[in-house]
Amino acid sequence: MERTLSIIKPDGVQSGLIGEVIKRFEANGIRVVAMKMLHMDKEQAKGFYAVHKERPFFDSLTDFMSSGRIVAMVLEGDQVIEKNRSLMGATNYKEAAEGTIRRDFASDIEKNIVHGSDSPETAAFEIGYFFNSFEICEQ
Ligand code: IDP
Ligand code: MG
To answer: Which parts of 67-128 are beta strand (E)?
Structure first.
């Protein structure tokens, strides 16, 4: 059993896609075990994406991620890191497979609706960034 962090980014919340994204998780055997809505400030967004701080898109990405409300969730399931990444689709929506969240809804390489941890190590860091142990519901 594995856990991962999912975020519905500001463009996803703004477009009314909270229900649609969660529906896809549940339809694919992924359980939501923690969830909160928040609006990060710039510093919080920079801390979350610290791994990308040398990238040319870092400033724009952290502006975007602090521009509005997000929904952060802990997902649980068998191989959920990989499963969530495959439901999300490739970073660039133009390269994402048919039927993925990003292919269906994203409009921009940056504004791509969802975030998902990419490894057990990043999942542990990212879950801890938003949730303490009391906020994660054991099933
Ligand atoms: P991921 O979200 O698919 O894991 P990462 O490479 O970790 O993709 O990049 C983090 C986020 O940074 C992406 O989801 C996207 O919002 C943004 N991003 C990635 N590459 C670019 C780019 O080339 N231009 C602008 N934004 C980008
Ligand atoms: Mg990533």
So the answer is: 70-77, 114-116
